[in-house]
Amino acid sequence: MDTITAIILAIVEGITEFIPVSSTGHMILTTKLLGFAEQDSIMKTYEIVIQLGAILAIALVYRKRVLNLLGIGRSSSGRGGVMPASRLNLIHVILGIAPALAVAFFARDFIKSLFGASTVLWALVAGGILMIVAEWVNRRKIRITAHELDDLSYGQALAIGLYQIISVLWPGFSRSGSTISGGMLSGVSYKASADFSFLIAIPIMCAASGYELLDSYKNFTSETIGYFVIGFLISFVVAYLVVILFMKWIQKIRLTHFAIYRFILAAIFWLFIMR
What we know:
Blueprint: H1 3-16, H2 23-33, H3 41-61, H4 63-69, H5 90-106, H6 108-114, H7 117-140, H8 154-169, H9 175-185, H10 190-213, H11 225-248, H12 255-274
């Protein structure tokens, strides 16, 4: 690894982690194009580190909401700096992450055995189709009952959690793609689905990255630590900016646009990796 490689990979991670385009697919394609072996242990550790940078970014964006969920935020009293009361609570978050965490815990080795370039290619296509269907149904067939994050019901939170299982069992499907689509198919608005998807990313990604890091800590050496620090910081900054911009322009960037991009990425996958 060199500095340029570290920067490129961190930028790719920061851009793709939270938008529904599959960060896994992008990282596989990028590392392949850069000439890294698929099972390079240092590269695997580096990917965990830059993912942690992205997690920190999303935690910062949703810091007030996180504090409220932890009981640190207070009800609004009309004074500046006091966070408003929230109807969303930890039960919603637990329902949103428990199904995926349970599947990941009991099927970790099985999931790893399924991982491969062809798996990711088809996941990109299937995820794109789900996103198109979810947007079409959400706009025409389903009455939206949760326009904002605080309107979310326990049933809708659980439904999103169940859809998240798809991304756990099918690498490359996209965690945000499955959860946002699941929310929209459950009567949740596009914006509220994205908000909840980003929010539940914090605990589930911390758990997954922390667990993987236990197997990779030996790769933190004097030769690699500099690259890890660079990657962490760049991924953090890029992910923060991407989430802010995505939520600002969410009404103008439809899921169908991301789906089309995924189909193009799948074609690139086929040309550069499958052939």
